[in-house]
Each structure stands twice: as structure tokens, then as C-alpha cells.
User: Which sequence fits this backbone?
């Protein structure tokens, strides 16, 4: 029903836009000069709508219309990396807020001194996965460290993972013998029951080493159910990644998303610059990017990937 609703809305927008274009053409052919200011304004509005629709037309992947899970993991860099993870978390929350998407924190592990070690978000809205798939990979920050008494320049790394929320379509069998399940007390907000009892769940999938945890729900059974859903989606995404890597290797263009291959660099010192290493898109307005202004980077990525697939 959700998919039907999204398709119906998409068709409605295209039909309404088509009708507005036809009406504007008819009015322009009437030659009434008094209507020129209104026609010019309508043309500007239509141009914005068509640009937005053209962008969405690039979101034609299997799961691009779906909701998504986004996970952030602090990497090399100690306290600076954990603070960088918190900055990225805030950036994606601001981005989702700009678009009116619904966000739920599934799991969050605070840092030792500042920031966070990791966090997992559930983000719901139209084309969420289509937009966020451009963010998968290692994000690199260069700045003067606020945690260094000598105020030296530090480089920090965080890994961002994104996978589509397609739990209804997942046909993956997970054996009990392949799971290690641990319980612990929630470290976040949630009420007396959550704080006093071991309601949080951590599940390790032994064959792949994938670890998922959930502490947002009020009961252990609810957290376990949610964690299993996330695990299935991550296993599905792992299968997809392997298929893509095999295809890319056949084409001779495979590049690992490991720690040595940051997809984007955020430089705050000695100059201000955010640059995507995959597309070459860059901006000097680092503050706007950290406040969630990511659309230009996402669009550049879509342009590059759609162009590569076409060729």
C-alpha cells in the first residue's frame, strides 16, 4: 500500500506539472502583454519543479524509493573521531529535518570523553535511500583539534553505512547457531524500566562478523525483533555489495571503500573546503554542509553514477 501510494503521488505530480506547462503555453500564445509578468513567474516555478522531477527521475534503482537506515561509526582518531561522528550525526539529522523526513534513533553509543562511538538512525520518507546511498563510505575531517592542548591539526575518519528498509521483501534465513546474542543496559534515555533492566540487545552474525544493536525500544523482545530486522537488511545489502563489486571488477573499475579511500573530505584548516573525491564536486561553504546542505553532493553523485551506467 505504501508503494502504491508513492506511485500514485508521483504520477499525480507529473500530470499536474504537464497540465501547468500546457496552460502556460496556451496563455503565452494569446499574446496578452499584461499577462507577461505572471507568465514569467509561472515559468520560474515550473523550472524549479521540472529540475526537481528530473533529479528524482535519476532515482530509479531497485530500492531508491524506500526508507533507509543510516549508521555512523567513529574510526581512527580517538576522541577527535568520536566528536567527528557526532558532527556527522547532527549533519544528517539537519538534512532529514530540511526535507521533513521522520527520524528515529535505533541505537547510539556515547564516546569515552566526547561525541559518539556509533549511532544508527531509521529515516522515513520518499526516496530516502535514493538520496542517502551517495553517503556510504569513509568521511575524512581535517581541523585544529579542540581536544589537543597544543591545538595541532588532526585528521579523523568515520564510516557511514546506508541500507534500504525493505524488511517486507527480505527472504533470508538466519540459523540460530550463527548468532551470538548479548544483553546490556541501555545507555540512552527511555524511562525507569529501560535504565534498570538489561533491555538492550546486541546480535553478532558469526559467519560475517556483522554486529547490530538496539536499545531504543522499551522491552528486550522489542529490541531483539528490531535488531533482527536490521541484521536481515544488512545481510541483504552485503549480498548486493558483493554483486556490485563482482560486476565492477569485471569492468576493471572496482575501488574499495576501505579506510584508505575516503569518499569525501571536510577540511576546516588551513582552508575551508568540502570535496567529494568520487565526483570532484566541492564547496568552500563548509558550515552549510555541516548544517545538512548535502543536496548538491547527492545530485553530483547521481549524475556521475547514472552517466557511468549509461556508458
Assistant:
Amino acid at each position: 500500500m505504501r508503494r502504491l501510494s508513492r506511485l500514485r503521488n508521483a504520477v499525480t505530480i507529473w500530470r499536474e506539472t504537464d497540465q501547468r506547462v500546457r496552460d502556460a503555453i496556451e496563455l503565452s500564445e494569446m499574446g496578452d502583454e499584461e499577462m507577461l509578468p505572471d507568465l514569467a513567474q509561472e515559468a520560474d516555478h515550473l523550472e524549479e519543479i521540472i529540475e526537481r522531477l528530473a533529479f528524482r527521475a535519476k532515482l530509479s534503482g531497485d530500492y531508491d524509493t524506500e526508507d533507509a537506515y543510516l549508521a555512523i561509526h567513529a574510526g581512527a582518531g580517538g576522541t577527535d573521531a568520536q566528536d567527528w561522528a557526532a558532527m556527522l550525526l547532527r549533519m544528517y539529522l539537519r538534512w532529514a529535518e530540511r526535507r521533513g523526513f521522520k527520524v528515529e534513533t535505533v541505537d547510539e553509543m556515547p564516546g569515552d570523553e566526547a561525541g559518539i562511538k556509533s549511532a544508527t538512525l531509521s529515516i522515513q520518507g520518499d526516496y530516502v535511500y535514493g538520496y542517502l546511498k551517495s553517503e556510504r563510505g569513509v568521511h575524512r575531517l581535517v581541523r585544529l583539534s579542540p581536544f589537543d592542548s597544543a591545538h595541532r591539526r588532526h585528521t579523523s575518519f568515520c564510516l557511514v553505512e546506508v541500507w534500504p528498509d525493505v524488511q517486507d521483501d527480505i527472504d533470508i534465513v538466519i540459523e540460530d547457531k550463527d548468532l551470538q546474542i548479548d544483553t546490556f543496559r541501555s545507555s540512552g534515555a527511555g524511562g525507569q524500566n529501560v535504565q534498570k533492566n538489561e533491555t538492550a540487545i546486541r546480535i553478532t552474525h558469526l559467519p560475517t562478523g556483522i554486529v547490530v544493536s538496539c536499545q531504543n525500544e522499551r522491552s528486550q523482545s522489542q529490541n531483539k525483533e528490531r535488531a533482527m530486522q536490521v541484521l536481515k537488511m544488512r545481510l541483504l545489502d552485503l549480498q548486493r555489495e558483493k554483486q556490485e563489486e563482482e560486476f565492477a571488477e569485471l569492468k576493471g573499475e572496482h575501488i574499495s571503500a576501505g579506510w584508505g579511500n575516503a569518499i569525501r573530505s571536510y577540511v576546516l584548516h588551513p582552508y575551508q573546503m568540502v570535496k567529494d573525491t568520487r565526483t570532484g564536486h566541492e564547496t568552500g561553504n563548509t558550515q552549510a554542509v555541516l548544517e545538512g546542505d548535502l543536496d548538491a553532493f547527492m545530485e553530483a553523485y547521481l549524475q556521475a553514477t547514472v552517466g557511468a551506467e549509461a556508458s
In short: Helices lie at 2-29, 36-57, 78-99, 128-132, 192-196, 220-251, 286-290, 295-310. Residues 90 and 291 are 8 Å apart (CA to CA). The mean pLDDT is 86.
